[in-house]
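Weekly modeling sync, notes
Attendees: S.R. (lead), two postdocs, one rotation student

Agenda item 3: backlog of single-chain predictions. S.R. asked that every request posted to the team notebook include the full sequence so nobody has to chase files. The rotation student volunteered to paste the first one in as an example of the format we agreed on. Action items at the bottom.

Example entry:
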Amino acid sequence: MSRRRLAGSDLVLALAGVIGLVLSLWLLPRQHPDAALQHMRSAEAARHRAVAFLAQRGYRVDTTQAIVVLRRAPELLRRWQMRWGRPELVRRLEDLPWLPVYRWVVYRPSEELNGQRWQVVLAGDGTIWGFRGPETPGEDPAARAAVGIAAEAFDPLASWGKLSGAPDSSETPERPGPAAAVALARYHLQRTIGSVLSLRPDSVGLLVTSSPQQAVVRFRGLSPTGDSVTVQVVVAASGQLRALEATWGTLHLPEPSPLEEGPPRRGERGFTVHEVQDLLSVLLFAGLGIWLLTVFLRRLHRRMLDTQGPLRDAVLGGLVFAVATLGGALPGMLQVPDVWLRLLILLMSTLVVGVFGAASVFLLAGTSDALARDRWPEKLAVLTLLRNGQVRNVVVGASLLRGLALGGLLLGMTVGLLGLWPRAALRLDAGAWTVPWPGLQAAVWLGFAVWVGMLLVYLLLAVMARQPWRDGGRVVGALTFLLLLLGVSAIDLEQVGLELTVHALWGMVLAWACWRYEPVCSGVGATTAWLLWRSAPGWMAPSGPFGLDGWVALGVLGAGLVIGFVGIRSRRSAAELPRYVPAYLQELARQERLERELEIARQAQASLLPRTLPEVPGIAMAALCRPAYEVGGDYYDVFALPDRRLAVVVGDVSGKGIQAAFFMTLIKGHVRALSLSKRDPADVLRHLNRLFREQAPRGLFVTMIYGVLDSATRTFTLARAGHPPVLHYRACTQQVQCLRPSGMGIGLADAELFDEALESCTLRLETGDRVLLYTDGITEMAGPRGARWGLERLQQWLVESSRRGYAPEQALEALEEQLRAFAGTTELADDLTAILLEVKQNGDAG
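Predicted structure, as returned to the notebook:
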């Protein structure tokens, strides 16, 4: 596309993002129940209120280890959203800040200090909605005086039970009964729930087994929301309030554990639609995970995986996942009484969670990176720059700005859609937020948002790379369907159809951005939308308990905006930046280059070997040469001498590969040159040793047999320089003779010692005789159990092939087949070379 058209599309996206963000910031606080947090006391104020309440009730407890948790009432919020609609609910929550749908729970879970376990539940304005006192009894003189109780216990013989309405005239301050218990309960109610609710007593009972003796008074009433409320007050004759329990629909205060989500709400027939939807998403995630793991292991086995970039991603992923997970689990850790045990749990949890997060990110990042580089490498440009820390450039800056605009657009679309359906109920969990340090909740929100964005980038990369087409409509459609099934949006609604619509809109926008731009843009957009939605309790209620966390979240997005503008202003294009090539691709390129060079070397070495063997009257011959690698150190040559004789050479350079092939070529040139001036094979090898010693490094040597065949006299004169023995098959006796004239390898000793040790011998050949020259790769061929082919088997083969009348070429083919069958593999451990000569009738030629 043209530059002008690109700028136009970016401008439209930016405008849509700004409009969506402004719409969200203005409209969401009027529609989201969490906007009621604006009227909540701070955590520290809730702690002081609970401590003061305990002191007023006559309790002397240690409050230094008290934990403060913020909770929701999800079932009440669900019912009220459907009953009144979200905008009306937000207005009612503003007018009735004492409602317990958002409440502070201040409690001491430990039982280590003489039963000092207690809990106080407060509404946003400080109204006490629940209380469970410590086990240690005390006295409330003000309450006793206000009610007029002079005894230490209630009268067990009084009329306890259902209240009839008429007071018991037999009660006295010395013999308090149900009326005194009700009056004492009313006294405490007026300082708690009774200050905001009109409650009437329903029944009163006596707990005779408790110590101290306690009375239980039950009150009933109707709330301004139209719901019935039941309150149970437990008091002692000492005037103390022992417990205050309220039941509002499905909400029971105080709760058994302030950190539990509570029992899940199920349908009459088992699982709800949302639970089935979540199960399908989990199964889809599991299937994608198995597929990516399979691809990862295959790539790892083939060493076609980049590790440098994914490792950097893994460090970041492990860090944000650990922060998000451990920040959310901090309330449970704070319940551990022992400081050192708490620290140990924190360290071990950080290690386990961080390793899991890093390993999963490395798996997804490595797999998606490898797949995308094969099929769609241009989609990796921004991700590669980010991994290498190259942020100040136009490519990354534009991607960040597009992603931020995309996040604003996603949130604006969502809030606008919710505005059209005011009775669509948001699914809100019970929550268990602690606020030990300002900004901690922002770290949790940011960690989860970044985690989701990273996973989305890798998933889009991997799935796009596996698409068999590049048509925009098909790619966007496939990605939209996948993101719909995964439930990509951050919004949970009670209405399944509307929730799926939101998922589909998010999936469509993210899929379009991925195809139009690249996956990082989609990942930044999803991260932005997730962070804005999850941090809404903070920025919607700046004076609430998470106001600072909301500003931190917005500040992070603002920092991303600044980085994007700085990148755009740098005017550094992709062409000006260094190009990153993964190590495995560099290794593949080196391997391909090496393979090409080895192929050239193989062709060059093959050209140095005789293409055809010379035709000599009365002699048939064949040769076999199979290098173990592309090039080898075995060498053979057959060429005519000036006096019509025939030189036959077989050599083996120590080692294998390129070095051996190089010196094999050097040896061939020397042998050809020396053969023109020297008649005796021993002289040729002596001069060859001198030349080789001057040119080759120490430790490198050559074994060789150099022979001269005279077809006129039927003689074969040879010299052996440390080579395996020559085999001579005599047709007249049908036996094989091993010829071992003395000699040491070329290059092992200086001229004097080499010349002294070298001998030559002459064979007189008859019709049917055969002569075999070979290298040690044949006799040392190893079988599956380590056994060697050996000289004995070679002699047996020579006898059998000769008796059967195999031509030399057929005999060597049979030898190669037997050797490979013996080894049990087609791969060679050493070079195989052999020359077989056969004496025919005069005039016959091979």
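Discussion: group reviewed the output briefly. Residues 339-375 form the longest helix (37 residues).
Action items: rotation student to repeat for the remaining queue; S.R. to check formatting next week.
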